[in-house]
Design goal:
The chain has about 325 residues and is an alpha/beta fold. The protein has twelve helices and twelve strands. Helix 2 packs across helix 3 and helix 5 crosses helix 10. The relative contact order is 0.13.
């Protein structure tokens, strides 16, 4: 098959964008399976009829012109990471007027919906937003979960008694400061890795707390090789986000044998079934107690590792994706 991948403009800027990583990971595996994937550039003219499928990732301006595209196999990954009630999200999809040039991303997506054959979502949580907010027929929605990118160990690795967290740690959605507060109060070892907004970080209380407590270590951005080492050595991985689509880093950590502490908001918890500590991200005490429980017990691993490696390996997820393109 020949498949066009169209990325939202904002996701092209950073190589660390989760949407970009999702698209690139799928594209690379499709190519390994013998398909042709064209990453569409706005500078190049396209013959859309030449493609077996066109896959859009997130909101992009191409949604405004779908009516003029003579290809009926259009797939979209809407990337809905909202924690608003669905009824409120649905109202926003109606906010707009072409005549008055009033618009929003949600409104444009509703207008484009009649031209989209398949909505490709990552969780049941996202499925409900698409079904109820945009009124999409369930037969036109497919759940294709994200996969881990790393090559996990075959056997359960040797673990050390610390909690790991990886993200852009100055992003308020990641809720890192409450995790840090939990580590300070409950005295567990916390290792943080990832990027920061330096202008924000240098003046933040988060930086002061990290520097003032010897049980908290910030490593900065790490290589993929170092990240794999951290996954394999950490006993616990915590993802107490306030807003999160899937949380690929937690999925990768679980595949490497980490016990998981995950937010109860949104779809991330779906990937772990009943084999994770699920917490209220607004409650630092709940986060701290969950991490301590996960550090002191071996409740879910290595069963969780086996489950993740079986259900969310890249080959399986992309095979399911390829079947969507065929039909």
């Amino acid at each position: 098959m020949k498949i066009a991948y169209v990325l939202s403009e904002s996701s092209c800027v950073s190589p660390y964008s989760g949407i970009r990583i999702q698209a690139e990971t799928w594209a690379e595996e499709l190519v390994r399976k013998g398909h042709q994937v064209i990453k569409v550039s706005p500078w190049e003219q396209q013959d859309w009829q030449d493609y077996d499928a066109i896959h859009l990732f997130g909101y992009c301006t191409m949604l405004n012109s779908l009516s003029g595209i003579p290809n009926k196999n259009i797939v979209i990954s809407p990337i809905i990471d909202s924690f608003q009630p669905i009824w409120k999200y649905r109202l926003v999809t109606y906010w707009g007027s072409k005549r008055l040039r009033l618009t929003s991303h949600n409104y444009e997506m509703r207008l484009a919906a009649k031209h989209i054959k398949t909505w490709c979502v990552r969780t049941q949580f996202e499925y409900e937003y698409v079904r109820r907010a945009y009124g999409i027929n369930p037969s036109n929605i497919s759940i294709i979960p994200l996969s881990y990118r790393i090559i996990p160990p075959k056997n359960y690795p040797q673990k050390e008694a610390f909690c790991l967290h990886v993200s852009k740690i100055t992003d308020k959605r990641k809720n890192v400061e409450r995790l840090v507060d939990a580590a300070i109060k409950y005295h567990f070892r916390l290792v943080l890795a990832g990027s920061v907004d330096h202008a924000v970080f240098e003046k933040s209380s988060l930086k002061q707390k990290i520097e003032a407590n010897t049980n908290i270590t910030y490593l900065g951005r790490v290589s993929d090789e170092r990240l794999l080492q951290l996954y394999c050595s950490a006993k616990v991985f915590a993802l107490p986000s306030i807003c999160e689509g899937v949380g690929m880093v937690a999925l990768e950590a679980a595949a490497c044998g980490c016990e998981i502490v995950v937010t109860n908001i949104g779809g991330p918890k779906e990937y772990y079934g009943d084999m994770a500590q699920v917490v209220d991200p607004y409650d630092s005490d709940a986060i701290g107690k969950a991490v301590l429980t996960a550090l002191s017990a071996k409740d879910y691993q290595p069963c969780l590792m086996t489950s993740i490696q079986h259900n969310y390996c890249l080959q399986k997820c992309v095979s399911d994706l390829a079947n969507i393109y065929r039909f």
